[in-house]
User: Fold these one by one.
Assistant:
Number 1:
Amino acid sequence: MAAMSELKKMRRVALAVALMVASGSAWAQAREASVTVHADKPGPKVQREIFGQFAEHLGTGIYGGLWVGKNSRIPNSEGFRKDVIAALRAIKVPLIRWPGGCFADEYHWREGIGNKRPVKVNTHWGGVTEPNTVGTHEFMNFTEMVGAEAYVSGNVGNGTPQEMADWVEYMTSPTNSTLANERRANGRKEPWKLPYFGLGNELWGCGGNMSPQYAADVTKRYSTFVKVPQGTTTLKIASGASDSNYEWTEVMMRETGRTIDGIGVHYYTLPDDWKSKGPATGFDEAAWARTLSKTLKMDEYVTKHSAVMDKYDPAKRVSLAVDEWGTWYDPTPGSNPGFLQQQNTLRDALVAAINLNIFTRHADRVKMANIAQMINVLQAMILTDGDKMVVTPTYQVFGMYVPWQDATQLPVDLTSNWYNKDEWTMQALNASAVRGTDGAVHVSLSNLDPDKPLTVTLNLAGATGTTLTGQVLTADRIDAHNRIGEPLAVAPRDIAPVAVAGGKAVLTLPPKSVTVVALK
Ligand code: AHR
């Protein structure tokens, strides 16, 4: 049945394209752009960690979305949903940040180990009970099931340096210390790998409302006691600024730059404002344009935070970790507003592609990013409903960008017609390029214009190959989305191969689309 309706849909798309060509209408108005990919001038490595995820104890992000318990009728591995694990493995999720967010600065790790786990109130998110069923062992085992690295955020807000030091020892020590043996008694013989450890979250806000100077002092103090066994490395990530708070980055870098390995920055894309953010579906073209225009601000924020970091760390040893990013809309009507549930549309796919392009272009400084959040919360990869799940347009983009993981950035120059709506104006084309670990050149081309196609002349300087193959993600409506009953309304489709002659190719991108191509 699903295959039949898929076939029908493809026929409808083909028919619509044929009609446009025949009438000469929309295609005649095609906008134009030109892109040069400098395959002969390779840039830095695009670390796979920029495709990182974030899983907070928030709404159904953990309970229901990931964890259903070992006795659930929903197929599970050690309590974690098998369908979700398989979907996350398919897009090669490289890194997962846990347990928060705001939740991290009130989290006491001892409450999440062993047989006696207190039931607490999740004060940040909906005031619901937190059973502590998913704790250190469960989360770390889950990351291993997914094949991802762990980015654990410590409690700087209302925890102590001793509590933090004990947690790190508990997770990483191979010795016969009391804490290491407690871990063994709880079922884990070998220490876990702990590649990243966060020194609190949003210390300027829910992490303790600290001034930058105070936060810097506290960060130095806590970071002193994060010690891992000889021969292992844990990169320490300091709590970063929000949006354009460059003073925060300035003070933190000046005061802690020599003791940390990374500093965060958080930026959420809201179509409107924090009071009324705007709906996730049923929005108009003006909201589309505002959202894309606002998400493009990420480039300015990353550029300016990086410039501050360059003053204190010209060798770029310390990375900028965009450890929370994504869209934030009004909650799904009827849902608990504290659960931050929202639908995910084609607009989110464009937001994802734009941000991944920005991180790729800033690969010299941005070594990690964590979209907020992985399951059922904000700009999610996956939405679940009972025993059902559906992958979102954002997930599809992450899948299309797998060749970007650990690839080499290739500089891109572009000129493009502009897309304007009301006072919002932006280049219609958004792009990035890499040489993948497979040796091939991969280019991502997004058309931000929701109405008009974009004809792109692609110059592939210094690259060899005769054909471009790839996929396109688009749909008939700007708010098209996947639902349990219609799981593939927004799904990538193969494009017809495009010939490359004399290092040049011409492609026409449909309106509101993300295309990735590989040169073969
Ligand atoms: O992702 C939701 C929340 O947004 C996080 O808990 C917090 O860090 C941020 O303000």
Number 2:
Amino acid sequence: MEVTEKDRYVIRGGNPLVGEVEIGGAKNAALAIVAAAIMTDETVTIENIPDVRDTNVMLEAMQSIGVNINRINRHTVEINGSMVKNVNIDTESIRRIRASYYLMGALLGKYKRAEVPLPGGCDIGSRPIDQHVKGFRALGADVVIEGGIVKAKAEKLTGAHIYMDVVTVGATINVMMAAAMAEGKTIIENAAKEPHVVDVANFLNSCGANVKGAGTDVIRISGVSRLKKCTYSVIPDQIEAGTFMYAAAVTKGDILIRNIIPKHLESISAKLTETGCEVQEFDDAVRVVASKRLKPTHIKTLPYPGYPTDMQPQAGVALALSEGTGTITESIFENRFRYVDELTRMGANIRVEGNTAFIEGVEKFTGARIKAPDLRAGAALVLAGLAAEGTTIIDNVYYIERGYEDFDKKLRRLGAEIRFTDAGEDMMKTKFKVVS
Ligand code: EPZ
């Protein structure tokens, strides 16, 4: 079904979530990997791609420039980039997702030319691309931004020594992709170390690239002239897993979260343990049990292995229900507290000063009509609704469906009362009584 900005979830809160949930492939890794797949003329098979709006938009945009996309099943696609007919991508849909910028690195690496609109994505703060541009220029490309389009071209790309002024996931991956097909050696210093940076490097290496050091501060790339086919499975989604961990925490539930890499969740597990949850790690699963009221803690978002900015709103919801005062300092994006006003409507007591939220825990939230301001904040507000007394209606769930596959279905299987309604549906006919 086409989901519009007006579609909503109706949630009746209060049930502890109990059971098992299976985590899908990492959206932010998949977005970069499908883009990188066009760098070979051979057919690449990518497995474990999440079926979410952002990855689907990306695949559509790739199709619009002649990439052959063959969906084998819901989570597996074959990609063949040998028929790319144009390096200028400008569709309405590609302007709406941030990850369109990965087509710059992939096209520039392979064709030495790319024209891609400036990226959109969630409004979580100013999102410059100066480090991407700096990296491409260091490799020898001319880069200009004209009419909202980033235009990059080079006679040839030559390996270079690049120091990133900030730790950036997007620029690290983008420059790594272009450098994989440059002549000679590239060194990226102050590189991002996120799991998806490593996953993209592993994918490129499976295609015959020579990328070493991904997951550390320094990535060394020896360019190759050709990449070949491979079959590759995307890593599990760290943020989807973390969101379900917090679902257990805020509903006093007991959830076994399966198909994950526990190492990627360490900062989240540590914070949940500090708040009094029991976190058990298994080989490829983690169980979170919350039996009593949460304790407050202090969180600062940082690049990996620090606490992820994409898990900040979920932690905000948990702290807002804890017994005492906690703080959250957001150090990556300046506009990631937009969920606070919505949470206040549910009874939360939060004061934001600069990039820090001072959170005085309350005993309970009560249901209200609220709006998802962006993807992760939207998911966090769903958790708030699940923990609240009464009925919560969340508008604009479009954002949530950008990055969570079957979110409401997975929550229902854990015992949540959550249903999706389209904008035309009469709220009074829903099976829950609206009390806000
Ligand atoms: C990626 O965004 C993710 N998006 C974001 O996930 C995530 O929040 C973010 O990384 C941080 O982990 C995708 O992977 C598609 P950055 P990205 O470059 O690449 C500054 C979600 O909810 N910066 O690591 O845009 C920037 O302003 C989304 O799934 C520059 O100054 O993030 C920020 O302060 C939201 N110049 C910091 O670096 C640049 O050229 C980190 O940004 C690039 C970034």
